[in-house]
Amino acid sequence: MEISNFYYQPEDFESFKNFILKTEKEFNPPISDRVNIDEYINKLTNEAVIILTKNKNHEIIGTACFYCNPKDFEYAFLSYIATTLNNQGIGSLLVNDMIAYCKKLGAKGIETQTWENNNNSLKLFNKFNFEIVGKKSNRSTETNSIILRLIF
C-alpha cells in the first residue's frame, strides 16, 4: 500500500473534518456524544499538531492529533488517533512520526488516554512501550479510561 504522512494544512480542513466525522463514531462513546464535534474539530485545527496519513489518491486514511508545547507542559498529549484501515501499519507510522516530532521539540514524553476495552489502541501503545500510569472512572459509561505515558 502506497501511503505517506503529511502535516495538516488549512486546505485539508474539509477532508480532515469529514474524516473526523466518519471515524469519531467508532469511539465508545462517540466523541460527539461528549463534546460539540464542530468545536472539537476547530480546536484541533487551531491548536493541535495534526499528522495526516494519505493514500496514493491523497485521501486521508489516518490521523494523529496531539498537543506538544514543552515550554508549558513536560509531556505532549495525544488527543485523537484513528485510521480507516486496521492492521495495516498506519497507526504505527503515525505514532513514529509523533514521537520524532515531540522529541525534536524537547518534550519529556507523550501521554494519552484510551478506554480499557480498546484492545487495538492498547496493542498499538504497548508496541511503543507506553506504560499504564493510572485509571480514570467515567460517570457516563461503566468503562474506565486508562492513562498511558511514554517517557523518552
Layout of helices and strands:
Elements (H helix, E strand, L loop, with lengths): L2 E5 L5 H11 L13 H11 L1 E7 L4 E8 L7 E9 L6 H16 L3 E7 L3 H9 L3 E6 L8 E7 L1
Parallel strand pairs: 4-5
Antiparallel strand pairs: 1-2, 2-3, 3-4, 5-7, 6-7
Helix pairs in contact: 1-2
How far do the termini sit from each other?
30 Å
List the total number of helices: 4
Low-confidence stretches: none
Largest sheet: number of strands, sense, barrel closure: 7 strands, mixed
CATH fold type: Aminopeptidase
Q: What structural category do the secondary elements indicate?
A: alpha+beta
Largest sheet: spatial strand order:
1-2-3-4-5-7-6
Helix content: 25-40%
Radius of gyration (Å)? 15 Å
Shape: globular
Number of domains: 1
Say what oligomer this is. single chain
Order of helices and strands: EHHEEEHEHEE
Total number of strands = 7
| Mean pLDDT over the residues | 93
What features would you describe in this structure?
The protein has 152 residues and is α+β, with helices and mostly antiparallel strands. It has one domain: Gcn5-related N-acetyltransferase (GNAT) (Aminopeptidase), CATH 3.40.630.30. It contains 4 helices and 7 strands. It has a 7-stranded mixed β-sheet with strand order 1-2-3-4-5-7-6, sandwiched between helices. α1 crosses α2. The longest helix has 16 residues.
List keywords for this structure.
Aminopeptidase, 152 residues
In short:
By secondary structure, the chain is of the alpha+beta class.
